[in-house]
Design brief:
The chain is α/β, with parallel strands linked by helices. The protein is built from ten helices and 18 strands. Strands 7, 8, 9, 10, 11, 12, 13, 14, 15 and 18 form a ten-stranded mixed β-sheet that branches. The chain has a six-stranded parallel β-sheet with strand order 3-2-1-4-5-6, sandwiched between helices. It has a two-stranded antiparallel sheet with strand order 16-17. It binds nicotinamide-adenine-dinucleotide. Nicotinamide-adenine-dinucleotide binds next to loops.
Length: 367
């Protein structure tokens, strides 16, 4: 039987899921069952549309649902879909707290359904190569990325630019960087988080984030990302001399080696439908959720003084000149901005993650 797949959240990033759905339907892998969105979206001929996911579930009973709504809305929709007997492709970040993670994991177990999380870069053959080449390493793992998002990015949706709805450079657009770093540092158990969050504009969350995690074994993961850069750094995961540019699957295993594109990405939806072991099962995102929850619970980000900023050459907002070099410097040295000569930097927020994890473990045992 060809599985019928529905999409909840068919605007925004849902458009890329619509492309995948059309492609897989064209190849006879699935049938597009229905779309749902709170707002009107471009209709798809022959595909029923609903403005409430509960109506969709009742009317269509799809075998699989893709959930691509804002992060703070994921849990109730996911629970309803599981209760209706559907497998899930749930966009990242899957949920906003470890408590929600435990509730969703329990529902997945009890329903016997499968839940794949939208960390598509985990399906990359290049990541597999990097992990194989660095297995057993105790060297620090780092991630660096520098993108540009104009002010209009934060006006596209009511939840954008608000920490209360789980937006922020590292918990949303650069969530993949954190997730990739955690996977490369296989078995990493964070016990300490040191975090510096900054904003270059009037938003209620960060657009420049610097994070150092220390693991139970003393290993560190450092992640430095920005959305206020004129110069583009796609996203680099580094262990020793090995570097993976995770959005493009380009890999370099030695300092003098050239970057090589490693083809072979398994699509998350195809993987889910195939019945094979999941690439990004919910349980694999637990440590990510520990860290993401702690990031969002941190005090509001510091504002970078306007005098440090300059206009983006194409308009649309301001950039922090040289921030692409700063993210690479932090990744290379493991020193946060406040620990180097950055005048606008403020002391990091330090929090034990052991305690958060212990509380959640205890809660999970009581379920
Ligand atoms: N995997 C990736 O690379 C990637 C890239 C971008 C976004 N995302 C994730 O996709 C999700 C959506 O992000 P976005 O940027 O597209 O957001 P968005 O706000 O631009 O779009 C979300 C869509 O969901 C709809 N929606 C909101 N609440 C709904 C509800 N309760 N029921 C039905 N529809 C609802 C909105 O009307 C909108 O069309 C987030 O979890 C985000 O992190 C993942």
């Amino acid at each position: 039987m060809i599985p019928r797949v529905a999409l909840v959240g068919a605007g925004g990033h849902g458009i890329s899921h619509r492309r995948t759905l059309k492609d897989l339907e064209g190849r006879g892998v699935l049938k597009i069952a229905a779309f749902c969105d709170r707002n009107p979206v471009e209709p798809e001929p022959g595909v029923p549309f609903f403005d409430d996911h509960r109506d969709l579930l009742e009317a269509v009973r799809p075998e699989v649902v893709i959930i691509c709504t804002p992060p703070h809305t994921h849990l109730p929709i996911a629970l309803d879909c599981l209760a209706a007997g559907a497998d899930l492709l749930l966009e990242k970040p899957p949920v906003t707290t470890l408590d929600e993670h435990a509730r969703l994991a329990a529902a997945v177990r009890e329903s016997g359904r499968r839940c794949q999380v939208g960390f598509q870069a985990l399906g990359s053959a290049a990541l597999g190569r990097l992990c194989a080449a660095t297995a057993g390493s105790t060297e620090p793992v780092s991630a660096a990325g520098a993108w540009w998002r104009p002010d209009s990015y934060y006006r596209r949706a009511p939840w954008a630019g608000r920490q209360a709805t789980f937006d922020g450079a590292l918990v949303n657009p650069f969530a993949h960087a954190l997730m990739q770093a955690l996977v490369v540092a296989d078995g990493f158990e964070p016990v300490l988080m040191e975090l510096e969050r900054y904003r270059t504009r009037e938003i209620q969350t960060d657009d420049c984030t610097f994070l150092r995690l220390t693991g139970a074994d003393g290993r560190t993961i450092v992640v430095a990302v920005t959305l206020a850069s004129e110069v583009f750094v796609a996203g680099e995961i580094q262990v020793g001399e090995a570097v993976l540019e995770y959005p493009t699957d380009r890999l370099r295993l030695g300092a003098d080696a050239p970057f090589e594109e490693i083809p072979g990405r398994i699509g998350l939806l195809e993987n889910l439908l195939s019945g094979a072991a999941l690439i990004a099962p919910l349980e694999r995102t637990r440590t990510f959720t520990v860290v993401a929850e702690a990031i969002v619970a941190a005090p509001m980000p510091a504002t970078i003084p306007p005098g440090e900023l300059g206009p983006h050459p194409e308009g649309g907002g301001r950039i922090l000149p040289g921030v692409h070099e700063l993210v690479r410097q932090v990744a290379a040295t493991g020193l946060l901005p406040s620990e180097s000569d950055i005048t606008w930097a403020v002391a990091p927020h330090r929090v034990s993650l052991q305690q958060a994890k212990g509380v959640s473990d205890a809660q999970a045992e009581h379920r």
